[in-house]
Design a protein that fits this description.
The complex is a heterodimer of chains A (647) and B (173).
Chain A (H helix, E strand, L loop, with lengths): L7 H21 L10 H24 L6 H6 L6 H6 L5 H21 L6 H25 L23 H4 L1 H25 L4 H31 L11 H26 L3 H24 L12 H25 L14 H33 L7 H21 L13 H4 L1 H17 L4 H18 L11 H25 L2 E7 L4 E4 L2 E12 L3 E12 L2 E6 L2 E5 L4 E5 L1 E5 L2 E10 L5 E8 L3 H17 L26
Antiparallel strand pairs in A: 1-10, 2-3, 3-4, 4-5, 4-6, 6-7, 8-9, 9-10
Helix pairs in contact in A: 1-2, 1-6, 2-5, 5-6, 5-8, 6-8, 6-12, 8-9, 8-11, 9-10, 9-19, 10-11, 10-13, 11-12, 13-14, 14-17, 16-17, 17-18, 18-19
Chain B lengths: L2 H20 L21 E2 L8 E2 L9 E6 L4 H5 L1 H9 L4 E6 L3 H11 L6 E4 L3 H5 L7 E5 L5 E6 L6 H12 L1
Parallel strand pairs in B: 3-4, 4-5
Antiparallel strand pairs in B: 1-2, 3-6, 6-7
The chains are: A alpha+beta (647), B alpha/beta (173).
Chain lengths: 647, 173
C-alpha cells in the first residue's frame, strides 16, 4: 500500500493537536523532579509544530483552497498576493493562530538560548508559558478552528474587507502580538521567580530585555494602528479612544511602568513585589485586551464577530491564568521590606512617581472603557465615553509625565540632588518658555495646548542633557533612554500641534471652484474615474497653492471594491512642512457639486518619528550597561558577566 | 496574609464576574436615544423657500406621525426613499428634518428621490437632532398623538422594516 499524505489543511490541523500535546508536556514537566528537563525540548517541538500549522494555513490562502472555510470567507483569487498572505491573520481564527505562533516561537527561542538563571529556572518559566500556550491552543482547536472545511467547496472566495488591504494594517496585528508575547515571557519569568523565591537584580537583568523588546513592539504596533486610522480610514485623526484602541493602550501603560520599575530592581534591588505585580498585571491586561477585542463585549468601530462562547472561553482563560498568578503572588511575594532605601528626589523617587502616574493613567483608561458597560448593566442606560472625558483627565497627567521624564534621568541614584542641580535645568526651562511662546504666536487657543508645547520643548532639550559636558561614552541604557525620551517629546509636540493648530474646511465644490483655508488656496481641478486591481474609484484632483505658488496636488478617492462590494474613502495626503495636507472626497450631491473635507495637520509627522524613536530607544536600552565602542577611541566593550547560579 | 496581598485577586474576581455577566448581552452598535418615552423637544425650524417649517406643535395632532431625519449628503437616505414612499402610500404622515443641509441641496434631493414628507424643517446646526437624542442620519422617530416619542429607528428603513413600522404605528394609533 502506498502511503498517501493527507491534504495539507488536515496536516495543519494535526500539527495543532500535536502542539497542544507538546504544550501540555511543557506545562506539566517542570513541576516534576525528573521530568523537568523535558520542558525545553517540548517548547521547541511546540514552536515547530505551530509553525507547521501556520505554514499549512498560509499555503491554503496562497493557492486559494476554498474548501477551507476561513479562506473562502477571507480571500479571493483576484486579491494581490501580499494581501492573500496578510489575509491569514485578518480574521479571528487566523489572528489567534498568529498569536499562538508568536508565543510558541518565543518559547522556542527561550529553549534554544542560554539560560542566564539556570536550566531549572528556565524550565519553570517555560512551564508557565506552556500553560498559556495550552490554553490558547485549546481555544483555537475547540472554539476557533482555522482549518474547518466546507463541502462542497465554492469556486470563489468572499474576499477580504478592503479596509484591511493596507500595509499599515497588514503589519499592525503581528507587531502588537510580538509585544503581547514579550509580556507573556516577562509574566512567565515573574511567576517562576515567585515560585523559586528568587527575585533579585539578576532576575531583573535577565527579564529587562524581554520587557524592553515587548515595549518597543507594542509602541510600534500602536503607532501602526494610529497610522492606519489616520491614513486609511480617512477619519482625519489618529486616536479616537475607541475600546479596541484602549485595549492595546492599557498593556502599553503597564509595560512602560514595568520597564522603569525593573530598572530600580536591577540597579538597587528595590521594589521587588511591585515589579512582579506589574509583570503579572501587564499580562493580565494583554489578556483583557484580547478578550475585549475577540468577545465583542464592548461595541467598537473595530466590529469583530460577536461570539459569546468564545468570549466565555477567553474569560475563563484570563481569570484562571491571571488568578493563579495573583494567588502565587499573594502567597509567595517576598516578605522582606521593599529593599534598599532612597531619598525622595533621587532617581528611584522619580521612577516611583513615574509608576504612580502611569497607573493613574491606566485607571482612567480602564474606567472609561468599562464604565458604559457597567452603567448599562446597572441602569439600562446607554452612553458612550469619548474624547472629552479621556482628554480632560489624561492630558494633565501626560504633561506631568513629560516634566518628570525630562528631570528623572538627570537625578542621581539613592540621594537627593546636589545644590547646584537646578542650574542644569535652565536650558530645558528656557526651551519650555520658547516653545510655549512660539505656540502662542502660531495661534494656540487653550492653556493645555500651550502647556503641551512647553512640556514638549522641555522634554526635547532635557532628554539630550545627560550627554552635555560628559566625557565618558554613554551606556546603551543611558543612550536608549535619551532616544526614547526624545521620541516622546517629539510625539508630544506632534500630537499637540496636529490637534490644536489644525485647520479644517468642509465644502461642497463644483469642478473649477476653490476655497481658502489657513492661508492656502485649494481648487477642485478635476474629478474622474480610476481603476485598481480589485476596485474602481472616483478620484478628485485638488490643487493647493499659497500666494499663487503651487504647494501640492492632492488626489483623494472614493473607492468601490468589487468583492465584497464596499465603499471606502482613500484620503489624499501630501506632506507639507512636517505636517500633512489631508483631503477626503465625499459624495456628489446630485447637482454637480462634490463634498470635500480638507484638513491642514501641522507637524503630525513628528508623531510617527517620535514613535519610531521611542521603539528604537527601547531596543538600544536593551543593550544594558555596556558602553559603546566609540569610533576612533580604544575603549573595550565592557559588559557585566551574567552570573549563572549553580543549581 | 494581609488584605493588600489578596486585593489583586478580589479585583480580578470582580472584573471577571462583571465581564461574564455582560457576555450574553445583545450588542447595540449605536447609542439608543434617551428621549424615547419622553415628549419631543420644543423646536421651530424654518422650511424650504416659500414653505412652512416644522414645529413641535405639528407633531401632537392626535394621531401618530413619523419624523425622519435625513440629509442630501447622506447616501443611505437615498436607499430608504422607496420605503418612505411606501409608508406614505399607506397613509402615514411623515415629517422630515434635514440635518446640516442647504435649502437648494434639499430641494434637489427631493426632486430626484421623491418627497414623502408632509412638512420639512431645516436643522442647519443639528441642534434639534441632538434634542431628539439622534446619533446620525438617517434616523426615524415615531411620535404618538400626544407628541411623545415612542420609538426610534436607527439607520435606513429597509423594505423588511416597513410592516414592522406600520404595526408600531397601529399600536400607538
Amino acid at each position: 500500500m502506498t502511503a498517501v499524505l493527507p491534504p495539507i489543511p488536515e496536516l495543519g490541523h494535526l500539527a495543532l493537536w500535536l502542539a497542544l500535546a507538546a504544550a501540555l508536556v511543557q506545562a506539566v514537566a517542570p513541576w516534576h523532579a525528573r521530568l523537568g528537563q523535558a520542558a525545553a525540548p517540548a517548547a521547541a517541538a511546540q514552536g515547530l509544530l505551530v509553525l507547521g500549522a501556520f505554514v499549512a494555513l498560509g499555503w491554503a490562502f496562497l493557492v486559494s483552497d476554498f474548501s477551507v472555510e476561513l479562506v473562502t470567507a477571507n480571500s479571493h483569487t483576484m486579491k494581490p498576493t501580499l494581501y492573500k498572505l496578510t489575509g491569514i491573520w485578518a480574521n479571528h481564527e487566523g489572528s489567534m493562530l498568529l498569536w499562538v505562533l508568536i508565543l510558541a516561537l518565543a518559547g522556542l527561542l527561550v529553549a534554544l538560548m542560554p539560560a542566564p538563571l539556570g536550566p531549572a529556572f528556565r524550565a519553570r518559566a517555560l512551564g508557565v508559558a506552556g500553560m498559556v500556550s495550552a490554553g490558547f491552543l485549546a481555544f483555537l482547536l475547540l472554539a476557533s478552528n482555522p482549518f474547518t472545511r466546507i463541502e462542497p467547496a465554492p469556486t470563489e472566495g468572499r474576499g477580504l474587507n478592503p479596509l484591511l488591504q493596507d500595509p499599515g494594517l497588514a503589519f499592525h496585528p503581528p507587531t502588537l502580538y510580538v509585544g503581547y508575547v514579550g509580556l507573556v515571557v516577562a509574566f512567565a519569568l515573574a511567576v517562576a521567580a515567585l515560585l523559586e523565591g528568587r527575585v533579585s537584580s539578576d532576575w531583573a537583568r535577565a527579564t529587562r530585555p524581554w520587557v524592553a523588546g515587548a515595549w518597543a513592539f507594542l509602541t510600534l504596533g500602536i503607532a501602526l494602528g494610529a497610522w492606519w486610522a489616520y491614513y486609511e480610514l480617512g477619519w482625519g485623526g489618529w486616536w479616537f479612544w475607541d475600546p479596541v484602541e484602549n485595549a492595546a493602550l492599557m498593556p502599553w501603560l503597564v509595560a512602560t511602568a514595568l520597564l522603569h520599575s525593573i530598572r530600580v530592581l536591577e540597579t538597587r534591588g528595590a521594589l521587588p513585589n511591585w515589579t512582579l505585580m506589574l509583570a503579572i498585571l501587564g499580562f493580565a491586561l494583554s489578556m483583557l485586551g484580547t478578550f475585549i477585542v475577540r468577545s465583542g463585549v464592548l461595541s467598537s468601530v473595530h466590529a469583530f464577530a460577536v461570539d459569546p462562547t468564545r468570549g466565555l472561553f477567553l474569560l475563563v482563560l484570563l481569570a484562571g491564568l491571571t488568578g493563579g498568578a495573583f494567588l502565587v503572588w499573594a502567597l509567595k511575594a517576598p516578605r522582606i521590606a521593599e529593599g534598599a532605601r532612597f531619598a525622595a528626589f533621587s532617581r528611584e523617587g522619580s521612577l516611583v512617581l513615574n509608576n504612580l502616574l502611569l497607573l493613574a493613567l491606566l485607571s482612567i483608561v480602564l474606567v472609561g472603557t468599562l464604565y458604559p458597560l457597567a452603567l448599562e448593566g446597572v441602569s439600562g442606560r446607554q452612553i458612550s465615553v469619548g474624547p472629552p472625558y479621556f482628554n480632560a483627565t489624561t492630558l494633565p497627567i501626560v504633561l506631568g509625565l513629560a516634566v518628570l521624564m525630562g528631570v528623572g534621568p538627570l537625578l542621581a541614584w539613592k540621594r537627593n540632588p546636589r545644590p547646584g542641580f537646578v542650574r542644569r535645568l535652565w536650558p530645558p526651562l528656557a526651551a519650555a518658555l520658547a516653545f510655549g511662546l512660539i505656540g502662542l504666536a502660531l495661534g494656540l487657543k487653550t492653556v493645555l495646548a500651550v502647556l503641551g508645547f512647553a512640556a514638549a520643548g522641555w522634554l526635547i532639550v532635557a532628554s539630550l542633557l545627560p550627554f552635555v559636558g560628559r566625557r565618558r561614552v554613554p551606556t546603551f541604557l543611558a543612550l536608549g533612554t535619551a532616544i526614547a525620551h526624545l521620541g516622546a517629546g517629539l510625539a508630544l509636540l506632534g500630537a499637540t500641534a496636529s490637534g490644536a493648530l489644525q485647520r479644517e474646511a468642509l465644502v461642497s465644490l463644483r469642478v473649477g471652484d476653490g476655497f481658502a483655508v489657513g492661508g492656502l488656496e485649494v481648487r477642485l481641478y478635476d474629478v474622474g474615474p480610476v481603476a485598481g486591481p480589485n476596485w474602481t474609484a472616483l478620484e478628485a484632483t485638488l490643487h493647493v497653492s499659497r500666494d499663487g505658488r503651487p504647494v501640492a496636488t492632492l488626489t483623494p478617492q472614493s473607492r468601490t471594491y468589487t468583492t465584497p462590494p464596499m465603499e471606502t474613502t482613500e484620503a489624499g495626503i501630501v506632506g507639507w512642512r512636517g505636517g500633512d495636507l489631508y483631503a477626503a472626497l465625499g459624495k456628489p450631491d446630485g447637482s454637480g457639486r462634490w463634498q470635500i473635507h480638507f484638513w491642514i495637520k501641522p507637524l503630525v509627522h513628528l508623531l510617527w518619528v517620535g514613535a519610531v524613536l521611542m521603539a528604537t530607544g527601547a531596543a538600544v536600552a536593551a543593550g544594558g550597561r555596556a558602553r559603546m565602542a566609540w569610533p576612533g577611541r580604544a575603549r573595550p566593550l565592557v559588559s557585566r558577566p551574567v552570573p549563572v547560579p549553580a543549581e | 496574609m494581609t488584605v493588600s496581598r489578596i486585593l489583586p485577586l478580589v479585583l480580578l474576581a470582580a472584573l471577571a464576574t462583571f465581564l461574564g455577566l455582560n457576555l450574553g448581552r445583545p450588542q447595540q452598535a449605536t447609542v439608543r436615544s434617551a428621549m424615547v418615552g419622553k415628549p419631543a423637544p420644543a423646536f421651530a425650524l424654518p422650511g424650504l423657500a416659500g414653505e412652512p417649517g416644522l414645529r413641535q406643535a405639528d407633531l401632537a395632532t392626535g394621531r401618530p406621525v413619523l419624523v425622519n431625519l435625513f440629509a442630501s449628503w447622506c447616501l443611505p437616505c437615498r436607499v430608504e426613499a422607496p420605503q418612505l414612499a411606501a409608508l406614505r402610500r399607506a397613509g402615514v404622515v411623515i415629517h422630515g428634518i434635514a440635518l446640516r443641509d442647504r435649502p437648494e441641496d434639499v430641494a434637489a434631493f427631493l426632486a430626484r428621490h421623491g418627497n414623502p414628507f408632509g412638512r420639512i424643517g431645516l436643522d442647519a446646526d443639528g441642534r434639534v437632532a441632538v434634542g431628539f437624542g439622534s446619533s446620525g442620519v438617517p434616523e426615524t422617530f415615531l411620535i404618538d398623538g400626544q407628541g411623545i416619542i415612542r420609538a426610534q429607528h436607527i439607520g435606513e428603513i429597509r423594505p423588511e422594516d416597513v410592516p414592522k413600522i406600520l404595526k408600531e404605528l397601529r399600536r400607538w394609533g
